[in-house]
Each structure stands twice: as C-alpha cells, then as structure tokens.
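TICKET: design request
STATUS: open
ATTACHED STRUCTURE:
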C-alpha cells in the first residue's frame, strides 16, 4: 500500500465521519475503516506477507493512518455529543424572565365580618352562640314554631325542598329562617331551664328562600336571638337590643321603635325599626329585626312550662346590618364575588 493510498484512506474516513449526522451512522462508518472487516484492519493483516525491511516502514505508515482516523473519529464523536446536548438544552429551555405567580392575601367576607362582630357583642352581654342544620325538617322549621300545616303564614316563606324525607314522611327543606334553632337549643337546655338557669343564645347562619331582587337573595343570613328567664319581657328585649345596636354602629344617638306585627311564634310580635340622628341615613326609620314575646305554644314545644318560662326572641337580617353599616345599597353585591367590591372591606377588621 502506497503512502498516497493511506492518505486517501484517511481523507475518505474523515469525510465519512463528517457526513455521519448521529452516533449510529458514525459507528457504522467507523466499522468500515477500523472494524474487523474494515479497510485498515485488512491492510494490517496484509503486512504479514511483506518482506521484513518493508514491514517496519509500511507498518509505521499504517499505524499513523490508524491514529489519524481514530483522532478524527473521536473529534466527530465529541462534536455530535455537544450538538445533541445543545439541542436538548434548547428544547428544555426555561424562560426565567417570566414574572412569578403572585399569591393574593385573603380577607373575611363583609357578611362574615358582620357576623363575627354581632357574635362578639352578644357574647359580651352573656349570650351563648349556637348553630344547627341548614337542611331542616318540617317540625323544627314550621310546626314547633306554631306554624301549623296549611296555615296561610307558611306562604310567607316560599321554601326549597330537598329530595329526602323525615321520619314522618315529610320532605326535608332548606331552613327558611334561623328560628328552628330556638327550638333545638331550648330543648337541649331544658333541664337547665327547669333548674332556674336562663337560656340566652344567638344563632347566626345561612337561610334560604325562593326570592331574588335587590334586597332579597335565595341564600341569606340571619341571627336568631332567644332569652328565656323568669320576669323577662319587652323591657328586657328593648334594653338588650338598644345596647346591641349602639355597640354595632358605634353610635349612642340612635332611636328604637317597636311596630306591631305578626309572627306565629311570638305574641305580641313587633318589627324593630332604627333611626340614626347622624350620618347619611339620619332621620329615616329603618327596619332591622322581627321580634316578640315567645308564644306559649312554642314554649311548650321547647319542652318547657309556659306557666314558669317566658321570654323573647328576635331575628336579625345579617346582610341588612352589613348594608347599613357599610352603606351598601344592593344586597346582591355581597354574593357576586367581584373583587373590586370585596377588597374595600379587606382592611376594615371587625
Ligand atoms: N323568623 C322570622 C323571619 O324569618 C324572623 C323573626 C321574627 C325571628 C320574630 C324571631 C322573632 O325570633 O321573634 O321572618
């Protein structure tokens, strides 16, 4: 084999390596030159047939060519590995200049702030705070509250019924008011009441009616109040309610008015109106609660003795209180979850 022949072979190998676009074809090309059946290997085998003086020179030349081919192979391997890595890095690139995702800080909803505020005020006056089921049975929601079946007063509260029944076969319903909590709480504390301990409780929570306009929502909140104690009457109710309103509105110049009304579970019954002396609502009577002396029939359904136990109850519309306190004119704003509206209450605290 001539020196030119070897040089041509090295060139040929370099070209073959250069056009190998990936490691598989590069290894194929390598086999053609350096493999068992490769051209260079064949030449090395051919050495045996040469006379001894040629063996050394030709052998050295073949070895040189082999080293040149191996060096070219190694260089191409490195180049291919580098470009594969560069391609992978480009494919998996992360744009670290994207701004991060901010976490918003939450805040209590204005209706919940109002509820917490009312709870704190009544607790400070010695009231317990209770809750109960939103899916109620007919007895607790209506019958026990002296609202007999087919009584027209039931139509005052158009109701959502649930596709399930109580033990007597009547459909369960979404409570239309928090008043069933009067019954549940008083019955649970019956023994204490017979032992002479007063029942003093408020029960805030969600209530439901088939109703929807600027001042009514199908879901809304009430706070029920109940005070059963010997000798307690309208004067007690008036005192408690006045103190509550003064604390709630941070205003000791407001006036209270009891307007005769009707509720099946109280007798006599009243609507409580409020009038501010100052502020944007000054001078107008604003209705804030239903109230009354608990009806003897209801006292009996509490499991108590109407001869011994008497007291008063009231029902506050929670959204109504929030609207008056914050100057909100449309109740639906509380439930639309528009952050531009809700954010305005996030720093107000309780
Ligand atoms: N439950 C009544 C309603 O939803 C509100 C109410 C009125 C509650 C008078 C009372 C009460 O406790 O004494 O319309």
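STATUS: resolved
RESOLUTION: sequence designed for all positions
ATTACHED SEQUENCE:
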């Amino acid at each position: 084999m001539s020196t030119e022949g070897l040089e041509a072979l090295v060139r040929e190998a370099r070209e073959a390596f250069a056009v190998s676009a990936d490691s598989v074809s590069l290894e194929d090309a390598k086999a053609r030159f350096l493999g068992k059946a490769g051209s260079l290997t064949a030449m090395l085998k051919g050495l045996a047939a040469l006379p001894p003086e040629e063996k050394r020179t030709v052998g050295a030349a073949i070895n040189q060519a082999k080293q040149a081919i191996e060096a070219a192979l190694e260089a191409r391997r490195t180049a291919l590995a580098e470009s594969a890595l560069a391609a992978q890095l480009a494919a998996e690139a992360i744009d670290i200049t994207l701004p991060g995702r901010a976490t918003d800080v939450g805040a209590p909803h204005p209706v919940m702030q109002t509820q917490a505020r009312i709870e704190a005020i009544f607790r400070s006056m010695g009231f317990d705070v209770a809750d109960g089921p939103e899916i109620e049975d007919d007895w607790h929601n209506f019958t026990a509250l002296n609202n007999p079946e087919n009584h027209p007063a039931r139509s005052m509260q158009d109701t959502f019924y649930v596709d399930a029944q109580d033990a007597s076969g009547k459909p369960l319903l979404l409570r239309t008011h928090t008043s069933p909590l009067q019954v549940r709480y008083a019955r649970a504390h019956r023994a204490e009441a017979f032992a002479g301990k007063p029942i003093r409780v408020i029960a805030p929570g969600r209530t439901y009616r088939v109703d929807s306009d600027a001042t009514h929502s199908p879901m809304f909140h009430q706070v029920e109040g109940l005070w059963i104690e010997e000798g307690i009457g309208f004067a007690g109710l008036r005192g408690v309610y006045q103190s509550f309103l003064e604390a709630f509105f941070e205003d000791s110049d407001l006036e209270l008015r009891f307007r005769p009304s009707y509720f099946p579970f109280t007798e006599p019954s009243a609507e409580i109106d409020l009038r501010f002396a100052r502020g944007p609502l000054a001078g107008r009577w604003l209705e804030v609660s239903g109230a009354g002396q608990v009806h003897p029939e209801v006292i009996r359904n509490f499991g108590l003795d109407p001869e011994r136990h008497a007291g008063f109850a009231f029902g506050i519309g929670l959204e109504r209180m929030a609207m008056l306190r914050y100057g909100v004119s449309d109740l639906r704003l509380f439930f639309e979850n528009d952050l531009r509206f809700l954010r305005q209450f996030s720093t107000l605290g309780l």
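CLOSING REMARK: The pocket of 3,4-dihydroxyphenylalanine is lined by residues 177, 179, 224, 263, 266, 290-292, 313-315 (CB under 6 Å). The CA atoms of residues 136 and 175 lie 5 Å apart.
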